[in-house]
């Protein structure tokens, strides 16, 4: 394969072909040839999430410095999907009673 693109996740020029996949050795991103590299965000049940969705938290979440945890069943409106800076938290939102926060897609379901 002659025209291997830069990694869409970390912009590395060292992408290489391995069978039917293109792999980035720097961040571990994998894609099939011809894919756009656009990230698809899915909730814990596999439903695709988009900006502005309303989600429901599926487990109690402890918050550092807060007196209480975010309770299971808390509804969060108007989420914003972001490229995770820490590699984990990919939802930016405001949670009632807690304020601005980053969440993982694995702890929410589409609501």
Automatic annotation (TrEMBL):
Residues 4-30 form the Protein YjdM N-terminal domain. Residues 42-110 form the Protein YjdM C-terminal domain. It holds the Pfam family YjdM. It comes from the Bacteria. Belongs to the YjdM family. This is Alkylphosphonate utilization operon protein PhnA. It comes from Desulfovibrio subterraneus.
């Amino acid at each position: 394969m002659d025209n291997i693109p830069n990694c869409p996740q970390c912009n590395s020029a060292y992408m290489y072909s391995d069978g039917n996949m293109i792999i980035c050795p720097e961040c571990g991103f994998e894609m099939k040839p011809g894919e756009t590299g656009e990230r698809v965000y899915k909730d814990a049940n596999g439903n695709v999430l988009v900006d502005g969705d309303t989600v429901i938290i599926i487990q109690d979440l402890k918050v550092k410095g807060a007196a209480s945890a975010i309770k299971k069943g808390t509804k969060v409106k108007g989420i914003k999907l972001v490229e995770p800076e820490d590699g984990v938290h990919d939802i930016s939102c405001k949670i009632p009673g807690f304020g601005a926060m980053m969440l993982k897609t694995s702890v929410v379901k589409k609501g």
